[in-house]
UniProtKB/TrEMBL annotation:
Residues 1-19 form the signal peptide. PANTHER family: CIRCUMSPOROZOITE PROTEIN, VWFA DOMAIN-CONTAINING PROTEIN. Keywords: Signal. Transmembrane segments: none annotated. This is Cell wall mannoprotein. Residues 254-330, 387-434 are annotated as: Disordered. Residues 264-306 have a biased composition (Low complexity).
Length: 524
């Protein structure tokens, strides 16, 4: 909700800090954006901000409020028109210092979220200060969708955000999640507009109610970032398709989106989560969703502050495999902030993160000997992971088939492709080709007339298991298939890894040749 007074905002924080609900009658509602709409990104921003908060900003939610309410949580920030940018800037700085892509991406998306205004159709005031980080400076907040030229302004903001995400090695499609609602009625005396007010700290109610309107298509995002090179190498990260099914939302000017909760990718929401932070650090939306990132240690330590490190692989080309922390709960294994049900999936993720870092180093010239040695090391790491999985068989079931959750590696294979790794033959080397879990035929077709298009496009052949509309860029489809193989199909670790490599390689080709390359790599 939005609040008209600082006391109401403070009441919200007090209620959440002590874990009791506040009656809605005590809170005054305002126009969008409501802080529950994009809860996930406020949560991640708060987590990053907690690492170092020299200006004492109380909570990221205050950056979305009007100045009167924002003053109650601004700390030492005096220019309230820039509180949101100051919050995003500090959060991004902290994430970058930790080389945590999840925190960096969350701060960027937060910076792009729409800020509250007093009535429907009123654009927010622009911050005139310069951000410390050029990435934050490049991204501006969305404007009320009913304001003048909002459609073109917000589309430009989303595409610029996508470029900044691509540059740091994050998923550019996360930019689509920064969008807002359909335009409200300019004559709405309540100033509420089109909103949602359902608490959903896992994601945000704009996603689970289907009210998000995409500013651009995935094709447009792919086109916008095609010439952007990755300039930063970090660890962790999240992917848009791990959070929601983007095909379920309407694009600006397109058909209406569904209104049920089917668009939320519930099986993978937790991929954006990590071990909750200490209660003393919890703030408005921080306590219930994607929280504390486990920083990768400089070696394979026997234990961490929250559990034992069960990653035993000692290879260190490109850096050690990040720790796999074994704790308690329904998802007891954690790697760089992402949690897993079974040890095999967690160890597989750790190996994949190491492989991507190694390949990036080899492609950039920081590591001599080529990418092949990274591939060999990854095979060894996966072999060690398989042994550990068998040893811990009593803690999980069928982990050899579910051994890797590399689908949310933020398309790291695609990032490697940007730096020249696409030419590898990794895509066709999997010995487990054909093990697609509960799904079948992950092949891609290239044809005319798909979804009424006048130009040829790519689409999954098997729409039952891989339900996605057509796209002009093969990577939109191939990345979706890889994610689905990993999350829903529970394909083997080798197949998921092969799929990601194939997706990166195919993205360097065009037309039927791209589809053929992807299909051949997967043996279909």
């Amino acid at each position: 909700m939005k609040f008209q007074s600082t006391s109401a905002a403070a009441a919200l924080l007090l209620g959440q800090a002590f874990g009791y609900p506040l009656p809605s009658s005590n809170l005054l509602r305002r126009e969008v954006p409501q802080e529950h709409s994009h809860d996930l990104f406020l949560t991640i921003t708060n987590e990053a901000l907690a690492k170092n908060n020299p200006k004492g900003i109380t909570d990221a939610v205050f950056g979305l409020l009007g100045n009167a309410a924002a003053a109650g949580g601004a700390g030492s920030v005096t220019n309230l028109d820039c509180l949101k940018q100051e919050t995003a800037d500090q959060a991004f700085t902290n994430g970058k210092a930790a080389k945590d892509l999840r925190l960096m991406a969350g701060a960027l998306v937060y910076q792009a979220l729409e800020r509250n205004t007093g009535k429907v159709g009123l654009a927010s005031v622009t911050c005139t200060e310069t951000a410390v980080n050029p990435e934050i400076e490049a991204v501006k907040p969305h404007q009320d969708p009913a304001s003048a030229n909002a459609a073109s302004i917000n589309k430009g903001i989303t595409l610029e955000l996508a470029k900044q995400l691509k540059a740091i090695g994050a998923d550019p499609n996360l930019a689509l999640l920064s969008g807002t609602f359909a335009p409200g009625d300019l004559n709405d005396a309540t100033a509420k507009g089109n909103t949602c007010d359902d608490t959903d700290p896992q994601l945000g109610c704009i996603f689970t109610t289907g009210k998000l309107v995409l500013d651009a298509s995935q094709d447009e995002v792919a086109s916008a970032v095609s010439a952007v090179s990755q300039t930063f190498t970090g660890t962790g990260g999240i992917q848009a398709t791990d959070l929601v099914d983007l095909s379920k939302f309407s694009v600006q000017g397109g058909a209406a989106a569904p209104t049920d909760n089917s668009n939320a990718a519930t099986t993978s929401q937790a991929a954006a989560q990590a071990t909750p932070p200490p209660a003393a650090q919890a703030s408005s939306t921080q306590a219930a969703a994607a929280t504390q990132t486990q920083a990768a240690s400089s070696g394979s330590a026997p234990s961490t502050a929250s559990g034992n490190n069960v990653q035993t692989f000692t290879g260190s080309l490109g850096g050690p495999a990040p720790p796999v922390v074994s704790g308690t709960g329904n998802r007891p294994f954690s790697v760089n902030g992402n949690t897993f049900v079974n040890i095999g999936a967690a160890l597989g993720r750790s190996c994949d993160i190491q492989h991507n870092a190694c390949a990036d180093a080899a492609n950039s010239g920081q590591l001599s000997g080529g990418v092949g040695q990274c591939d060999d090391q990854n095979i060894q790491c996966k072999a060690a992971a398989s042994g550990a999985t068998n040893t811990n068989a009593s803690n999980t079931s069928n982990t050899s088939d579910n051994a890797s959750s590399s689908g949310s590696n933020n398309a790291a294979s695609g990032n490697n492709a940007d730096s020249g790794n696409a030419g590898n033959d990794n895509a066709g080397s999997s010995a487990a080709t054909g093990d697609f879990g509960s799904c079948s035929d992950p092949s891609i077709k290239f044809a005319n007339g798909l979804d009424g298009r006048t130009e040829p496009a790519f689409a999954p052949v098997n729409e039952a298991d891989f339900n996605h509309g057509s796209a002009l860029a093969i990577k939109v489809i191939s990345d979706f298939i890889c994610d689905r193989l990993n999350s829903s199909c529970k394909a083997s670790a080798a197949v998921v890894s092969t799929c990601q490599s194939a997706s990166a390689a195919a993205s360097q080709l065009t037309g039927q040749a791209a589809a053929d390359a992807f299909n051949k790599a997967l043996g279909v």
